[in-house]
Amino acid sequence: MSFNVCQHAHLKKQYTKKNKEDVAEYTKLLAKQMEEVKEKYQKQNAKTHRLSLRR
Question: In terms of CB atoms within 10 Å, which end of the chain has fewer, N or C?
Answer without folding.
Answer: C
